[in-house]
Design a protein that fits this description.
Strand content: over 45%
Structural class: mainly beta
Number of strands: 11
Distance between the termini: 37 Å
Largest sheet: 7 strands, mixed
Helix content: under 10%
């Protein structure tokens, strides 16, 4: 599975940004897809993801601000970021966990910088 992420950039505090990820290869569906981020000096952390059951898990710090939406037909997963904060500055990674093969796939990171 290959994951292609796009949409990062510079955004002002309180602004919005949309990240997109498109999968190709042996892809079984959006369940298992998610967005992670690595903030400077911190380990990689989950932002939001679809679980195996198809529910959405989001970390507390982004609830009410970030939304993920997946499309099985397009093999895509978007992350809509609103009311961004400086602490959202990070490299964002698209992830796909293949529950059939127990295999983790990562896209190249895309930098999001929140600054005035």
């Amino acid at each position: 599975v290959q994951l292609q992420a796009s949409g990062g950039g510079l955004v002002q505090p309180g602004g919005s940004l949309r990240l997109s990820c498109v999968a190709s290869g042996s892809f079984f569906g959006i369940n298992g897809m998610g967005w992670y981020r690595q903030r400077p000096g911190n380990p990689r952390e989950v932002v939001a993801r679809y679980t195996k059951a198809g529910t959405i898990f989001s970390r507390d710090s982004v609830k009410g601000r970030f939304t993920i939406s997946g499309d099985n037909d397009k093999k895509s997963l978007d992350l809509q970021m609103t009311n961004v904060l400086p602490e959202d500055t990070a490299v964002y990674y698209c992830n796909y966990y293949d529950y059939h093969e127990n295999q983790d796939y990562w896209g190249r990171g895309t930098q999001v910088t929140v600054s005035s």
